[in-house]
Write a structure and sequence with these properties.
This protein is of the alpha+beta class. It folds into 2 domains: 96 residues, Helix Hairpins (Orthogonal Bundle); 151 residues, Immunoglobulin-like, CATH 2.60.40.150. It is 40% helix and 25% strand. It contains 7 helices and 10 strands. Strands 2, 3, 4, 6, 7 and 9 form a 6-stranded antiparallel β-sheet that branches. A hairpin with a 2-residue loop joins strand 2 and strand 3. The protein is globular and about 85 Å long. The two termini are 37 Å apart. It comes from Cynoglossus semilaevis.
Length: 298
């Protein structure tokens, strides 16, 4: 009974620590999102504006992932009250199956027409692109790259490492695109008007009228803080990778393309993503158990 009580206590402390860490990460990303939006409105150079817009989308995606994990942790705590012993065994099993995975060499081949690529005809517009990768509550993005019709492959350098994967993980790789305009016209947003309205009615009354300004909900934030049209990214394509694709060598994977030629942010993707995905059990790099062995001498 004492051993069981100790395990229940350790599990409760683990859940509390996990919730505290998630809440700290959530608060940090909310502050980063506020800073990214202020920087977005203050920038004048197009590279700075597009990078600020990219960072804003990434912060919003992390906030959404943290909120989802907090909700799942809360549900697990409620289930633990009903059956603590079974939940402890399940958590122990999951911890022993943790993986460390990484993806590198992201490359998206393009399929230009001959008249566009070789004869220097057709559209001369440039596009800004970046990748966003989701695995559980971990969200990472790549550097922004600018491509035109002279580029045959959209490449992203660097290695992205995910620490807390499980054997059934699903890595979602997204490609976002935005028109790289020479001059960006930053339209005024209703945020200042809403703040003036809130201040005119007083702090308490204004918050009741404008509760959406201080929310951490990702969708509500973007509704109340719209991104200027000249810096707005659109999801161009995505794919989902799992443990079966982690073969340790460069492989080609099919893409799901969401845009067509009528979209202003469209690019002629070939329809495949090339990358190297690897996965390794955590027990191969970390100490999982330590103790003494007794040798029986005959």
């Amino acid at each position: 009974m004492e051993v069981k009580r100790k395990k229940i206590l350790q599990s409760s402390l683990f859940q509390q620590t996990q919730n505290t860490n998630l809440q700290a990460k959530l608060d940090f990303e909310v502050r980063m999102r506020e800073g990214a939006y202020k920087l977005l409105l203050a920038c004048s150079k197009r590279e700075q504006v597009l990078n600020a817009s990219k960072n804003l989308l990434t912060c919003n995606a992390r906030i959404r992932a943290y909120l989802h994990e907090l909700q799942e942790t809360k549900e697990e705590e409620e289930e633990e009250v009903m059956g603590a012993h079974g939940r402890i065994l399940e958590n122990t099993c999951v911890e022993n199956q943790l993986l460390s995975s990484s993806v590198t060499g992201l490359r998206f081949p393009l399929m230009w027409r001959d008249s566009d690529h070789f004869n220097n005809r057709g559209s001369s517009r440039r596009m800004a692109l970046f990748c966003m990768m989701h695995l559980g509550s971990e969200v990472f993005d790549t550097e922004m790259v600018v491509v035109d019709r002279s580029v045959t492959d959209v490449c992203f350098e660097g290695v992205t490492i995910f620490q807390d994967a499980v054997p059934s993980f699903e890595l979602r790789v997204e490609l976002w695109s935005c028109v790289f305009e020479e001059e960006l016209t930053m339209a005024k947003t209703p945020k200042k008007l809403a703040k003036k309205l809130r201040n005119s009615f007083g702090k308490s009354g204004g918050k009741k009228l404008c509760p959406l300004l201080d929310t951490s909900d990702p969708d509500t934030f973007l509704q109340c803080h719209p991104i200027p049209s000249g810096a707005r990214y659109n999801l161009l394509a995505y794919t989902t990778l799992g443990l079966c694709e982690a073969e340790g060598s460069f492989q080609s994977h099919s893409l799901i393309i969401l845009q067509n030629a009528e979209w202003p942010t469209w690019l002629p993707l070939y329809g495949n993503l090339c990358c190297k995905l690897v996965a390794q059990p955590v027990c191969m790099t970390q100490h999982m158990m330590a103790g003494y062995l007794s040798q029986k001498v005959r």
